[in-house]
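Dear colleague,

Following up on Tuesday's group meeting, I ran the structure prediction for the two-component complex that the binding team flagged. I've pasted the input sequences exactly as they went in, so you can double-check that nothing got truncated or mislabelled along the way. The C-alpha cells for the whole assembly follow below. Feel free to forward this to whoever is handling the docking comparison.

Inputs:
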Amino acid sequence: MRAVRPPLRAGRFSAVLRIRPLLIVIGLAAVLFGLFALDIAVGEVRIPLGRVLDVLGGGGTRAQRFVIMDSRLPRALTAVVVGAALGLAGAVTQSILHNPLASPDLLGVTTGASVGAVAVMVGTGGVATGAAALGVSAAALAGGLLTAVLIYLLAWGRTATGDTGVMGFRLVLIGIGVNAALLSVVSWQLSRATLTDAAHAQQWLTGSLNAADRSTLIPAAAGLGVALLVTAGSARTLAALRFGADTTRVLGVRIQTQQAILLAAAVGCAALATAAVGPLSFVGLAAPQIARRLLRTPGEPVVASALIGAIAVVGADLLARTVFPVALPVGVVTAAVGGPFLLYLLVRANRKATL
Amino acid sequence: MPAVVTTRRRRLSGLLVLAVLLLCAVAASIALGSRALSLATVYDALVCPGGLPLSCPATDTAGQIVRELRLPRTGLALLTGLALGMAGALIQGYTRNPLADAGLLGINAGAAFLATLSISLFAFTAPTQYIWFAFAGALLAGLIVFGVSALGGGKASPLSLVLAGAALTAFLQAMTNIVVLQDNTALDAYRFWVVGDVAGHDSSTLGQILPFLLAGAVLALIAAPGLNLLSLGDDVAQGLGVNLTRSRLIGLAAVVLLAGAATAAVGPIAFLGLIVPHLARALTGPDYRWLLPYSGLLGAIVLLVADTAGRLIARPGELQAGFTLAALGAPFFILLVRRRKLVTL
C-alpha cells in the first residue's frame, strides 16, 4: 500500500496528482504524434519526416502543403479520431458495466451501426463520400443507438444480488447473440445488392481508411468531441460508478440518469466512428485493458484508453500500408492482431481461475 | 422396472411423432413456395397420371419447379438440418456448455475462410471441389477454439468458450475479407454462400455431401454412450473406463464431418445447432442415445419449416433460411441466457 498523496487544492477544486500516470499519458501522446507524422509521411510519394513536421507547423511549399494538408492529413486525423473514439467508448462502457468485455464491438453496437450504414450504401448506390457520408453517418448512429437500447433492455432483470439491473456477463452474452443475428442481417443485405454495391459495402465492412476525407472526419470528430465533454463533465460520476450501483447510490449520484447519458455518449461516438471507416473490431475492447495494465489503475482510464485506441488505429494503418505487399485495409490488421489478443486474455483468465 | 419401460415407450412414440412431423414438413416444403401451385398440380408433377413417380417428361413449368427446384431443396434442407441438429447436440455435450453452437464457436467461419480461399486460388465452382477445404477450416477452427478454452486445465465456462468463438470468428472473418476484397468473383460466390441458403443447389450437391454426413452420423451414434458418461465429469468418466482422448477425437471428427459438410453445402446457418438440442432435451432428458436422433429429426424439421416460411413470408421474393433462422434463433438465445444461471468468467 502506497501512502496517500496530499491533494492539490485551488478554491473548491481539488485533485490528487499522480506522477506515474501523468508521465505515461504524456509518453503516449508523444508516441501518438510520432506515428501520426509517420502515417502522413508514408504514401505513394514518401515525404521526409522533417518536411512533414515543417508543413504541419505552417511552413513548406504550396505543393507540399496541398499533398499533406488536403489529402493525407484528413486520413491520418480520421485514424486518430476513430481510434480515440473507440478507445474512449470502450473505457466508458467497460467502467460502467463492470465488465472488461463490455465494449461496443463485442456488444453488437458496431454491427448495428453497420446494418444502418449498409442499408444507405446499398439503397442509394453511393459510397461513403460527399453528401452520402452524412446519410451513412446518420443511419449508423441510429443503428448503433437502437442496438444499444435493445441490448440494455434485454439484459435488464434480476441480478445475482437480488437487485434489478443489468448484469455484466448477461449483457455480454446477449450482445454476442444480438451481434450474430445482426451479422446475418448484413449478409442478407449484401446478397440482395448489386455486385458493385456489395463490393463497396464489403470494403467499408472490412474497415478501411481509403475513403477517409473531410466529410467522414467531421461527424466522427463531432461525436468524439461531445463524448469527451460528457465524460469530462461526469468524471466524478464515472469514478463513482466504477464501485458499483450500491456505492454510487450512497455517494448520492443520480445514478440512472448519469449512467444513461454516459452510455449514450459512448455508444453514439462509437457509432459515428464506425460510420467513418467501418467496423473496427477489438480496438474498443483492447485499448482500455492495455491502458489499465499500463497505468496500474483499478478502473479503465479514459484519456489513456483514447490515446491507446488512437495509437492502435494509426499504427495498424501504418502496418497495413507498409509491411504487406498489397495495401491492406486497416480493419484487417486490427482484427488479425485483436482476435489473438482476446484469445490470449482468455487463456490467461482460464489459467488464473484454475490456480 | 415399469418406470424405465414407460420412459422408453414414451421416447419411442415421441420419435414416431417427430417422424410424422418431419413428413409433414417435407410435404409442405414440396407443396408450398413463392409460386403458388395447387396440391393437384404438385401431385401430378410427382406422380404422373399412369406413369412411375418422378418419371414424367419435364415439359410443364409446374413440374419443373417441383422436381428440379423444390425436391432437391427439400432434400438438402432435410439432410443439413439433420446434420446441424446432431452436431449442435454433440458440441453442447462435449463442452458441457448450453450455449455452444458451430456458428458461435467459429467453426463456420473456419469453413468459410478456407472455402473462400480455395475458390479464389483455384477458381473452384462446385462444392465437391471446395468441400475438403471447408472441412479443413472447420477442423482447424474447432481445434483452436476448444484448445484455447481448455488451456489451463479447467473446464471452460460458457462465457469464455463463446468469447473464444467470437474472437476466432472475427480473426477468420478478417482473413476472409482479405480474400474477397482482392477478388470480385470470390466475393460474389461468398456473399450468396454466407447468407445460408438451401435454395439454388441442384441434386448433385446432395450426393456430394451424403457420404460425409452418413459417416458423421455413424460416429455421432458411436459417441453417444461415452457422452453420457462424460456428462458425469471427466474424473468419473475416466474411472468408469472412458478413454477421454479417444472419445473427444471421435466427437470432434463427428462434429467436423456433420457441421463442415452441411456448411460447405448450404453456407453457415447459425443458431440451428443451438436451439435444437434444447428442444430435444426438453423432450427426452439428458440421455445422448436418444438426444442425438431427436436433435437430428428436430433439426431437419426446424430447417424445413424455416425455409418454407421464408418462401411464404416474402412472396414473391424469398428470405434465405439462414436469415429466417437467425430471426428465430436470436430471441431463443436471449431467453436461454436470461433464464439460466450461467457460470461467470
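The beta strands of chain A are 8-10, 13-15, 156-158, 164-166.

Cheers,
M.
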